[in-house]
Amino acid sequence: MTKRYMRANQRRKMVQEQWETPLRFSEFCLLLLGYGEAGKSSTGNTILGRQVFGSRRTARCVQRHREVGGQQVSILDTPGWWKHLPIEQTPELNKDEISQSASLSVSGPVSYILVLRADCSFKEQERKAMEDNLRLLGSMVWDHSIVLFTFGDLLRDGAIEQYIECEGKALQWVVDRCGNRYHVFNNKAKGESHQVRDLLEKIQGMIAVNSRCDDKDMQVLQEVTEQTPDRRCRDEERKMNPMMCLITVKMMKSFGSRERGDG
After folding, report:
1. Are 159 and 2 in contact (CB under 8 A)?
2. How many CB atoms are closer than 10 A to CB 150?
3. Integer Cα distance of 118 and 171 in angstroms
4. 77, 112 in Cβ contact below 8 A?
């Protein structure tokens, strides 16, 4: 049992223990991201339980919906980038589709599935290409992402954790950047719903944690914005010159008056 497995398992238990009743979202959207031929379309078909995505490479996003385990799941398959080439070589149309993909979701929270093949090497060149292309979606994309390894049937008896550790620092960086969230799919195993169920449980846990963090951030923001100019100034007295503090208060009061139309 590797340290990575223990960390992932501990994180999963922590999420489950934080809520007496496990959170279940009635609907959510999964964005499939990755280089071409990583197995994104096959992954979408496995999750939805039917052949809804074709195998041909496309320059446009394709979205499909279906109820899975009592939940409405929307899958959005995005154009793949070139595995070994820098983002400068990614066609502009593909980059536009990737950058706008999150806005295409119908409803519910959005999660990102970073699809990688478990039967191929993943080196620094591929890591750099992934990082650059994901930058199109903003810096917060990693907090809402999980790595999904396809071709899990080729791992045989080897655990995915062993593959991650043996593959090297480039792959480990990606997995760690996603908060050590990862999953394995065997897209050839039709009818094995447990791998889909386990993936959706991990995604629900990720969404729940992010939702709680967002709530805390909003609470802190509200507390800050509700402070009066005089209160904010008093809190910063040790950092500011008293005269500068007085000027700041007067400026903020004057600004508030203009907003109300008092002058």
Report:
1. yes
2. 25
3. 11
4. no
Q: Is the pTM of this model over 0.85?
A: no
Q: Which of 106, 180, 105, 172 is nearest to 146 (CA)?
A: 180
Please report the DSSP string for 129-158 in residue order.
HHHHHHGGG-GGGGGGEEEEEE-GGGGTT-
- Name residue, tokens 């990606």: 174
Count, residues in the chain: 263
pLDDT mean values, one per 10 residues, the chain (263 residues):
68 56 72 94 94 88 91 94 92 94 83 95 95 95 96 81 92 96 89 87 89 49 43 45 42 44 46
User: Do the bridges between strand 71-77 and strand 182-184 make them parallel or antiparallel, or are there none, so unpaired?
Assistant: unpaired
Residue 32's CB: how many other CB atoms inside 10 A? 26
Is the torsion defined by CA of 216, 18, 110, 95 positive or negative? positive
- DSSP annotation of 102 reads G
